[in-house]
């Protein structure tokens, strides 16, 4: 088995080394990830400038590693488009420093690497540790990642669907188990900070507290990890709101004449 | 009514001028968009560097316009976080040069601007013209955008749900009508191109033909626009694959002991 490993914290982050080491027992492991931290980069495809892809030393023996100049999803794309010659069976991303739950997913570079994998028809799993501290311990999350791959769940994922895994910040023996759950509700606590540069011009930071969210609503990723469980959420790229689609279909919109403005407005 | 207008083609693109002009009859219009083209930028939140936001001249009279140094979603975020003082009733994004259908959505800066709006609890509509040519004609799409806003459909969108609209590249009188449809299936035709720089080092481009896709599957955005209809697709940020969630729940995963590797593997 040949596993491709990427992330968004950058190739020197401890989480990707822990994940690559956890994948080694399954066979061949290739790491390809951004040279620098690309957190909250989203699902960017770099089309208007070239990329660099350089072999780099990696702290896990037996792993080939490449650093890319651009995004996590670019890293996965170039690997699957032929930069990595050996066929790839599975793409794993992470272990992210910090959770990727609720509405984090479209922002997340770690999850976007998995989006890119499923777009190119490869099974993919994104792993995140619910701990954003500099000295987070990835060992329990790595053991969980190894267990989830060993279980082979990724083999049954339908098209355009990845598995999103969040591991609570607990020693392995204190993790209570697994919950298969839906995305919960995030609350972002961003604020806009205005500063003045040395030349008198304003500049702006998106700052504020870390995101919070609803940990009380049962059956969600936020609830599961808050209560000491690993959350497993199958995520698909079909974002159609089917209930709303049927509601809109029932309103006669499809019989309107293009460009005709209703008379009341 | 106060409408915020953004895009990913950049504030100087003809599509955003056409959209802002189409929104003026509804009241106040503020434009905030990236200074430069940010196509395929995804849903990036710029947290690790500051942003510039500068007032700029805009070709539509009566519109206040600001150019930002970063992404479409940053542009919407800073506006909603207080840079724009007057309360905003609706966020519209586009008119994008080229379609945003099927699996384009997480890549799309235009759609990501709408993601950001719904995350901050504002109704949002993304508009795209199925024409990627330099001299595309936005007039029919602008008339459609005006009609859709006049219909007030955005008022009934549920939380975290936006409306994604694609307009075929036809004169208004040749557009056949509206179809409320789901996301279709894209096929990406990317290739990895390797070149050698003047100093003998390789660099890489993600290149290839424009994406294609399945235009024959009835009831999708690709099918609707291919057949001369405007596609309307409600898109939500809950990406949970519920069918797969129930299937995984039925497999006893929730009774596994964390870290225990199945004996067969």
Plain-language structure description:
The structure is a homodimer of 265-residue chains. Chain A is globular and about 70 Å long. The longest helix of chain A has 13 residues, at 139-151. In chain A, the strands form three sheets. A nine-stranded mixed beta sheet of chain A has the order 3-4-2-1-5-6-7-13-8, with helices on both faces. In chain A, strands 9-12 form a two-stranded antiparallel ribbon. The first copy, chain A, is built from six helices and 13 strands. Chain A has helices at residues 14-23, 72-83, 109-119, 139-151, 221-226, 242-249; strands spanning 2-6, 28-34, 53-55, 64-68, 90-97, 124-130, 161-168, 177-180, 186-187, 190-196, 202-208, 212-213, 229-236. The mean pLDDT of chain A is 96. With 265 residues, chain A is of the alpha/beta class. In chain A, α1 (14-23) packs parallel to α4 (139-151) and α2 (72-83) runs parallel beside α3 (109-119). Chain A has one domain: Survival protein SurE-like phosphatase/nucleotidase (Stationary-phase Survival Protein Sure Homolog, Chain: A, 3-Layer(aba) Sandwich). At the A-B interface, α2, α3, α4, β8 and β10 of A face α2, α3, α4, β8 and β10 of B.
Please outline what is shown here.
2 copies of one chain form a homodimer. With 265 residues, chain A is of the alpha/beta class. Chain A has helices spanning 14-23, 72-83, 109-119, 139-151, 221-226, 242-249; strands spanning 2-6, 28-34, 53-55, 64-68, 90-97, 124-130, 161-168, 177-180, 186-187, 190-196, 202-208, 212-213, 229-236.
